[in-house]
Design brief:
eight-stranded mixed β-sheet, four-stranded antiparallel β-sheet, about 35% strand, globular, disordered C terminus
């Protein structure tokens, strides 16, 4: 019995339902469990806060194992704060991610600013008690702590992760003594994640060839690294993206050498019994469902989607080797064959082949005059988002082509793909992006005068670097919450993410070599008088991840550089929005307004828009 909230999609599986502001139990006479308006009123502490108002959205709902209690995680859009509401006894705690260990025990982590370092236990065993005890407190500022329950609900993991180290503590929730024990103490460059299967630990660790992920196994009684035995090593150029243990099978999400998704199914009783399931060629994103008690435990349910293909539900029975899709979704309908997915590779400056995914509605040879929207990220080892987006599909219907450039710094080709574009290798991301554009244009896809680039957060770095290097390679740029002053940010240790991000960008204060590297490519510090592309920069005034000061400076320097070169104002807009959002508004109306403004920014490339004074 579960309800999941992911983005703007709601998956409802039973007798719990929600309106825009409430959660109800679907009994014959619906009982209101939570009203967000009441939460908003309860959290207003000052007159200023009351005047501004709190906007809460439901992020996630967790039911205790036998549905005795409900925990709902809420997010305050105005201040980017988290709150968990626990019913039926009605407790509220600020800034929380949570998991039920039993019907009466909830483990949760507190979020202070952008840091999660403490784990607590809420005990509801006796009515009205609500006893809270501290379980764990992390001392390292660059380590993020979270809790997660295994799929079989036998163990609860306390995951302590930094950019370069992992440490996992487990709690056996089947026992009355709920005390954590360490699997493997953290060590530099060791990353691992743990699942549970019949008294054994199934471990996904970067101990494979080239420090890539492989699957290991150890007994729960001897969990340290010395006891890890290999179960599965992926083929060269094949990367493991995710792992699930379903019944007696280990299921792996793979990215193939052709940059396509596939599933590997391995019997844990006989690891040599392994087979591969090919997924639809259009599939670019997969989202697995965590089962509830009423769900089939030996079946994996998941959604497949792409930027232009809506999510389609699938279920896999690994024992029967049976992959089924919901017949009601008509996966073979015209909507999934109307748009073409073309995968290719661009040769970067150092000879590295960079994957490019292209979505189009007409043959490639007919795309020479089509406007092109290019997406890029390339940081923190994270894949470029490829989930369904109605706006992207609309652009395709209007004759656009959409390109996704999987440059180094991301995680598409494994952990080494990220390592190659960290710190000293940061320029490689922009070099890869340049190669992708050249590949597209030389293949007859659009042209520089019809091309717009879009990115968010750290993805703005390779885009803005390329704007400094080759401003004639694109017509327009739209950047959301852009990270543009890398040097200035990494010089300030008091900012929320600077210490944590040194593994990604380098230490601009304590390492002179790192400082020189950052200064050599930093978008803000390498602006020169020339003709820059049309720009739309959207930033959120309360975003703790992206200092507003850096975006304001960047815009000011761009204006000055363009005026020096051309003696006129450029088609550029700085859009400063209120709130602490980082990836855009969650309110649907606000989201549409922002999308509309971006569409005007990319669609009216020939219309001069005056950049407001700062």
């Amino acid at each position: 019995m579960n309800i999941y909230f992911h983005g703007h999609r709601n998956y409802i599986y039973t007798d719990i339902y929600s309106s825009s502001s409430s959660i109800f139990l679907g009994t014959p006479e619906p009982e209101q469990v939570l009203n967000l308006e009441h939460v908003s009123r309860a959290k207003r502490r000052t007159r200023a806060e009351s005047d501004e108002g709190f906007q809460w959205t439901i992020q996630r709902i967790r039911l205790s194992p036998h549905e005795k209690h409900l925990a709902a995680t809420l997010k305050c859009v105005t201040y980017s704060k988290m709150l968990t509401f626990v019913s039926i006894l009605t407790f509220m705690f600020m800034y929380i991610y949570e998991e039920w260990a039993t019907d009466d025990v909830l483990f949760y982590t507190t979020l202070e600013g952008l840091s999660s370092s403490c784990v607590f236990r809420l005990d509801l065993a006796s009515e009205g008690s609500g006893k809270v005890t501290s379980v764990y407190e992390e001392t390292q500022p660059d380590v993020f702590v979270e809790v997660a329950l295994s799929r079989d609900r036998q163990i609860l993991a306390i995951n302590c992760n930094s950019r370069t180290r992992s440490e996992v503590m487990l709690i056996d929730v089947t026992k009355s003594h709920l005390e954590p024990f360490v699997i493997q103490p953290r060590q530099l460059d060791l990353l691992y994640h743990v699942e549970h299967w019949k008294g054994s630990l199934i471990i996904l660790a970067n101990t494979g060839p080239g420090q890539e992920y492989q699957v290991m196994q150890s007994p729960t009684s001897e969990p340290s690294m010395a006891s890890w035995a290999p179960l599965f090593v992926p083929n060269p150029d094949t990367t493991i993206k995710d792992m699930d243990v379903v019944g007696d099978y280990c299921l792996l999400v793979l990215k193939t050498p052709a940059n396509e998704l596939a599933l590997s199914v391995m019997s844990l009783r006989n690891p040599k019994e392994t087979y591969i399931i090919e997924l639809p060629s259009w599939a670019c994103a997969i989202e697995t469902k965590k089962p509830g008690l009423a769900d089939r435990q030996n079946v994996l349910e998941f959604l497949l989607s792409s930027p232009v293909h809506p999510p389609v539900p699938f279920s896999l029975d690994p024992e029967k080797r049976l992959l089924l899709s919901d017949p009601g979704t008509q996966t073979n309908s015209e909507s999934h064959h109307k748009y073409v997915t073309t995968r290719s590779k661009a040769c970067s400056q150092d000879g590295t082949l960079v994957p490019v995914t292209l979505f189009h509605a007409v043959p490639v040879e007919d795309l020479s005059q089509a406007p092109l929207l290019v997406h890029v990220y390339g940081a923190y080892g994270r894949d470029l988002s490829m989930e369904f987006c109605p706006v992207r599909r609309f652009l395709l219907e209007q004759g656009w082509a959409l390109a996704y450039c999987h440059i180094r710094g991301g995680g598409e080709r494994g952990l080494s793909w990220h390592r190659q574009a960290r710190v000293e290798g940061k320029r490689r991301g922009a070099e890869d992006l340049q190669a992708c554009l050249q590949k597209l244009f030389s293949s007859g896809v659009s042209s520089a005068s019809l091309t717009a680039l879009t990115a968010c957060s750290a993805g703005a770095v390779p885009v803005a670097v390329l704007c400094n290097w080759k401003p004639n390679m694109m017509r327009a740029v739209t950047l959301q919450a852009p990270f543009l002053d890398v040097l200035g940010t990494m010089e300030k240790a008091d900012l929320p993410l600077t210490v944590e991000d040194r593994d990604e960008w380098g230490d601009a204060v304590g390492n002179l070599h790192h400082r020189h590297i950052i200064a050599s490519y930093c978008p803000l510090h390498n602006i020169t008088p020339q003709c820059y592309s049309s720009m739309l920069l959207t930033v959120y005034s309360g975003d703790p991840r992206i200092p507003l000061e850096g975006v304001l400076k960047y815009t000011k320097y761009i204006k000055k550089a363009i005026h020096t070169h051309l003696n006129r104002k450029q088609n550029a807009v700085l859009n400063v929005q209120p709130g602490a959002n980082h990836l855009g508004p969650e309110d649907f109306v606000q989201m549409l307004e922002e999308v509309s403004q971006k569409a005007r920014g990319t669609g009216r490339l020939s219309t001069e828009t005056v950049l407001p004074d700062i």
